[in-house]
Design a protein that fits this description.
The complex is a heterodimer of chains A (about 325) and B (about 280).
Chain A (H helix, E strand, L loop, with lengths): L15 H15 L3 E5 L5 H10 L4 E3 L4 H13 L3 E7 H6 L2 H10 L5 E5 L17 H6 L5 E3 L4 H13 L4 E4 L23 E4 L4 E5 L3 H14 L4 E5 L2 E3 L3 H10 L2 E9 L4 H12 L3 E7 L9 H8 L3 H25 L4
Parallel strand pairs in A: 1-2, 1-3, 3-4, 4-6, 5-6, 8-9, 8-11, 11-12
Antiparallel strand pairs in A: 5-10, 7-9
Helix pairs in contact in A: 1-2, 1-7, 3-5, 8-12, 9-10
Chain B lengths: L2 H26 L1 E2 L1 H18 L14 E4 L5 H11 L38 H11 L22 E6 L7 H11 L5 E7 L2 E2 L2 E2 H4 L5 H7 L3 E6 L3 H11 L7 E6 L17 E2 L2 H10 L3
Parallel strand pairs in B: 2-3, 3-4, 4-8, 7-8
Antiparallel strand pairs in B: 1-9, 5-6
The chains are: A alpha/beta (about 325), B alpha/beta (about 280).
Chain lengths: ~325, ~280
């Protein structure tokens, strides 16, 4: 797989949330149907511009996340394309039944934006850190789950979500943080199609969200040691890009998955499920090790949860050793002619 | 048609829907008889007197919405949909079968059903969203304007159970409806005094639901929900209210029209041949 659309330097200039809101404004200009709904959640500077331009189309329903999701389904029934915004944990925790019943089951054109998702939101504490969103939402039929990795892909994911007729979950990390921008503005983004951000044939690193940048950093340092890593940005958790995953399994034979979500049932789970059935391969899953979040800075929390470059590197070494062991075992067992 | 004739016609139609819904229940051998029969009069008045809808265009964007939040009492709605021409009458025989459009809780795969039910406490929030949508102007302030410059595109009716009002989200929605002054929204509580496993007051006593809606700023009326004259009056009144949502607490009798079930907790009952016969006899024209 070839890399494309990559920036030479990855500077952090705009938060993914701001890029998402910018996309909403751009779409609202073209379509009367876009509405932006909030559950006492800050729309941010860009969101406030939206409110000024389209006063009726920014709706805040207060601290009532269940009502936020269900009323958005009602707005969809009235012909609109609502994007709902609140803390990821409360959209999921207070709105699970609503996402399942009013959005997914009834196949409504609602886009649920999980804000401050994952654990990279420093200073807030475990009560607000959603770790289980992938696992819980993957098991609901009809949902498309997007997890962009930088401001450019967050903007494109928002546009793609609006164009897609049906329910979408859009996962965004800490809304006030500018993460490194990976992609050039001409990025061709397609729901369900993984993006290759680093080429290599020794090991495959399948990452999502803010962990793509960390995976990329690890791949660059591996390259210096003579190890080639194919890094895929798995920006769509569902539907999984089966072709890209199976190609990595077949061509490379060693996979590491990286996500800032619980290792149970998330991206790693999805990749393991698929490859176990279709192309068994060595896999190590890097993710939150089935623990809750903590108070602390974003980096401290990531370290607490096991989300460090060192953890990715260790996993890479483990699958490489396993692959090597596997190869030599196979060799020994091959009968001589 | 004068008003007396209208009420007489609606009364006959309500009993027809009760009879038809018995056949629907018989298809599964079990039925939500109590809630279907208690709400039959309200359902009849909405479908055949009040709502601006077109059975030929069930997805018409400007139709009045009907959100059936107490989605278990589906049999009477299916009977109403067949009577109004949304679905062929023969389709009632497919009720509860796998793959049927008539699932065992109301489902928006059925033409004429605007929102799936079954998970209690959600319908009023959906209705609030729809009602907001009827006021939103793309490029100007209307929903949020102090004085609205454009009327709602359609009205929204929501039928809730009294037991269902235990659910907290009902009250999130109630507060939000007043906040946006959704006068195009009417909630009708089918207050039949029983929920799934017992009397409402013994499960979680909500005291007066009418007082509660009043406290949330709704214009509220309490009526005999099995008296079609009162139901028609209340629905006509609701359309005249401006600036506030309206709640109609319809005091009803669970199992109304089937004497041996009336005022018992006939929530989900077995429908035998004898019960079908007795019901048809009690409800005959």
């Amino acid at each position: 797989m070839k890399t494309r659309f990559l920036r030479k330097t990855r500077d952090a200039s705009e938060s993914m949330y701001a890029a998402h809101n910018r996309a909403l404004i751009a779409m609202a200009e073209k379509s009367e149907k876009i509405v932006s709904c909030y559950g006492d959640f800050p729309p941010g500077e860009v969101g406030e511009v939206f409110q000024k331009q389209y006063p009726d189309r920014l709706i805040d329903v207060g601290i009532a996340e269940g009502h936020l999701i269900t009323s958005a389904a009602g707005l969809a029934d009235a012909g609109f394309i609502p994007f709902t915004h609140c803390h990821a944990l409360f959209a999921l925790g207070r709105g699970y039944n609503q996402i399942r019943h009013n959005v997914a089951y009834d196949n409504r054109n609602v886009k649920v934006v999980l804000c401050n998702a994952g654990v990279a939101w420093g200073g807030i504490g475990p009560s607000h850190l959603a770790i289980e969103d992938f696992a819980a939402l993957r098991a609901i039929p009809n949902l498309v789950i997007l997890s962009p990795s930088d401001a450019v892909s967050a903007e494109k994911a928002t546009l793609a979500a609006a164009e897609y007729a049906g329910p979408v979950i859009l996962r965004l990390p800490a809304v006030g943080t500018a993460y490194p921008t990976l992609y050039t503005n001409d990025l061709k983004y397609e729901i369900g199609k993984a993006l290759c951000v680093h080429e290599g044939e020794d090991v495959a690193i399948l990452a999502t969200g803010i962990m793509v940048n960390d995976a990329l950093g690890v791949a660059e340092s591996l390259k210096k040691g003579g190890i080639g890593a194919r890094v895929l940005d798995m920006h769509t958790i569902k539907p999984l890009d089966e072709r890209a995953v199976l190609a990595a399994a077949r061509d490379i034979g060693a996979i590491v998955t990286v996500e800032d979500a619980n290792v149970l049932g998330g991206l790693g789970g999805a990749v393991a499920e698929l490859t176990a059935e279709r192309c068994p391969v060595w896999i190590k899953r890097v993710g939150i090790k089935d623990v809750f979040g903590e108070s602390g800075t974003a980096e401290e929390i990531k370290a607490h949860c096991g989300l460090t470059p060192a953890a990715i590197q260790k996993a890479v070494q483990e699958v490489l050793n396993a692959k090597k062991g596997n190869a030599s075992t196979k060799k020994r067992k091959t009968p001589r002619r | 048609m004068n008003r007396e004739e209208l009420v007489r016609d609606l009364h006959a139609k309500a009993n027809k829907l009760r009879r038809e819904s018995l056949f629907v229940m018989k298809e599964m051998g079990m039925g939500w008889l109590g809630g279907s029969f208690s709400s039959a009069d309200v359902v009849t008045a909405l479908f055949f007197h009040k709502m601006r809808r077109d059975p030929k265009r069930p997805q018409w964007s400007e139709r009045d919405r009907l959100i059936i939040s107490k989605g278990h009492a589906c049999e009477v709605f299916y009977a109403a949909l067949a009577e109004a021409g949304y679905i062929p009458r023969e389709e009632l025989k497919t009720y509860s079968h796998t793959g049927s459009r008539l699932q065992t809780h109301v489902d928006c795969r059925t033409p004429g059903i605007d929102c799936s039910g079954g998970s209690l406490g959600l319908g009023l929030s959906f209705a609030v969203g729809s009602a907001m949508g009827a006021y939103i102007r793309p490029d100007a302030e209307n929903l949020k304007a102090a004085a609205r410059n454009q009327n709602a595109r359609f009205r929204v009716y929501c039928i809730l159970g009294d037991g269902e009002c235990n659910e907290g989200q009902v009250w999130e929605a109630a507060a939000n409806a007043l906040h946006f002054r959704l006068d195009n929204l009417t909630a009708i509580v089918d207050s039949n005094k029983f929920q799934s496993t017992g009397p409402v007051e013994k499960k979680m006593n909500m005291l007066s639901l009418g007082e509660k809606f009043k406290a949330f700023g709704w214009e509220t009326r309490e009526i005999d929900g099995n008296d079609l004259s009162a139901v028609v009056d209340a629905l006509d009144w609701a359309c005249t209210v401006q600036g506030r949502p309206q709640a109609i607490v319809a005091h009803t009798i669970k199992g109304k029209g089937f004497p041996s079930f009336e005022n018992t907790n006939c929530h989900f009952v077995k429908i035998t041949d004898e019960i079908l016969r007795a019901g048809l006899e009690a409800l005959k024209e």
